[in-house]
User: What shape does this take?
Amino acid sequence: MSVVLRLLDEDVRNVELEGLTPAAVAALSLAELQRRRICCGRRTVELGQLFDVSGQPESGTIRMVGDLQHVHWIGAGMDSGAIVVEGNVGRHAGSGMKAGGLQIEGNAGDWLGAEMSGGRIQVSGSAGNLAGAGYRGSVRGMRGGELLIRGNSGDETGALMRRGIIAVGGSCGEFTGYGMIAGSIAVHGRCGARPGAGMKRGTIALTGRQEQPRFLPGFAESSPARLTVLRLLARYLADLGMPEFLPCEEMLARVIRGDRVVGGQGEILVVTEV
Assistant: This one.
């Protein structure tokens, strides 16, 4: 049986749960968990003042219930176990995540999975800006793991990405894959302007029927090709529960390479036949 945190007042603002990971919770008794101090605005309060806390902390699984759009840092830094959120979450969910699973049955705020290095994040709804990105001043964003978003994602998805995979079932905003160093991003819906700006390596796959994105001048197009990597990527994503990325076995893709402004050898694959 998991430990269950049920939000008592959904009008509460600026709650931070940084450090409340399955491993940290497993080391506490239920009474100790209820008394654990968390940030709420400019003050600290006991967890039990904001959440009804029940279940078994030692289980390694946390289930959170309620509209948590103003609750931030859920699952940040987690390195084991699982967190299931039945509702929306705020900013920084899963940031710095190393292992384990974070499942969000709703929408997520900005900085979802920022600088994560392992584990799997699944979002049934949409995400804000900078999903899987690096924080301002950092030289690397997402370093590994899997970030799966069923809905849309905002601007700068995967900015400064180093490793791992990001899949967006809906549309993305502008500057997808900005400054990418490596890794893979797959977008099934519409992609905003200037994808891959400043990318050095890595792959951005635009797999659905969509409008032509606006590329920067540092990108050059080569001849369309049928690429095995697209089929392998689509099958891998289907195994992870994102089947819409496999429209058919034969996918013809435009291959666009860059960003030559920074000497980049990245590739953007635009499926033209599904």
Summary: The longest helix spans residues 228-239. The mean pLDDT is 92. Residues 118-274 form one domain. DSSP finds four helices and 17 strands in the chain.
